[in-house]
Amino acid sequence: MKVERIVLASNNMGKLAELQAMFAPLGIALVRQGELGVPEAEEPHRTFVENALAKARNAAQHTGLPAIADDAGLCVEAFGGLPGVDTAYYATQFGYPKGDDNNVKALLEQMRDVADRRAALVSTLVAVRTPLDPEPLIAVGRAPGQIAREPAGSHGFGFDPVMFIPAFGQTFAQLPPEVKNANSHRGKAARQMVELIRERWL
């Protein structure tokens, strides 16, 4: 199969730049779905893999091109894996406006008296050749760590300032971007996905 372009089922510029760099060696161009007029997909599911699949199918359906989608979030051990798929809206459950800073604030408040700080950032990438592809490619990346007691560092976004990585003795937001990307949940998932595409599609 000749693959030259893949639609990225996201309009997040940060995500696009991160993934474009990783897909460059395959000679494949990633195109943001917004540039092709693809409407946002519904994400009604409770798992990352089902939401990512719904987004990828929607983009493939509207463009006739292969599509890739990512669904990611924070899974906190003490909360049974939540907020999970609701990560982006976490703060709104506690009366705060949606946003990264408020998410961090709400999480630290909810975990004030929680001793078990274990958590993982999880990224699930799903790629389909067509909307009806019976064999979607699925790659999962996981970055385990602990929720820090207070934010530290100025890089990254989301929960990076409170995601403490024991192997580095720092939060993701304190690490240089290239170190973070090499060890992040999205970085791990993207590297797996590049291998899967090379092996199965090219």
Automatic annotation (TrEMBL):
One of its Pfam families is Ham1p_like
UniProt: substrate binding residues: S10, N11, N12, M13, G14, K15, A72, F157, G158, F159, D160, K180, H185, R186
Query: For this protein, what is the EC number?
Result: 3.6.1.66
Q: Which GO terms describe its biological process?
A: nucleotide metabolic process; purine nucleoside triphosphate catabolic process
Catalytic site: D71 (proton acceptor)
UniProt cofactor note: Binds 1 Mg(2+) ion per subunit.
Record bears the keyword Nucleotide-binding: yes
- The entry's Mg(2+)-binding residues are E42, D71
An example GO CC term for this entry is: cytosol
UniProt catalytic activity: ITP + H2O = IMP + diphosphate + H(+); XTP + H2O = XMP + diphosphate + H(+); dITP + H2O = dIMP + diphosphate + H(+)
This protein's UniProt keywords: Hydrolase, Magnesium, Metal-binding, Nucleotide metabolism, Nucleotide-binding
Q: A Gene Ontology MF term for this entry? A: ITP diphosphatase activity
InterPro entries this protein is in? dITP/XTP_pyrophosphatase, ITPase-like_fam, RdgB/HAM1
Q: Which cofactors, if any, are listed as required?
A: Mg(2+)
What is the recorded function of this protein according to its Swiss-Prot or TrEMBL entry?
Pyrophosphatase that catalyzes the hydrolysis of nucleoside triphosphates to their monophosphate derivatives, with a high preference for the non-canonical purine nucleotides XTP (xanthosine triphosphate), dITP (deoxyinosine triphosphate) and ITP. Seems to function as a house-cleaning enzyme that removes non-canonical purine nucleotides from the nucleotide pool, thus preventing their incorporation into DNA/RNA and avoiding chromosomal lesions.
Q: Which HAMAP family match?
A: Non_canon_purine_NTPase
Q: Subunit structure of this entry?
A: Homodimer.
Provide the family line. Belongs to the HAM1 NTPase family.
> Would you tell me the protein name for this molecule?
dITP/XTP pyrophosphatase
- Source species of the chain: Ramlibacter monticola
Q: Output the lineage of the source organism.
A: Bacteria, Pseudomonadati, Pseudomonadota, Betaproteobacteria, Burkholderiales
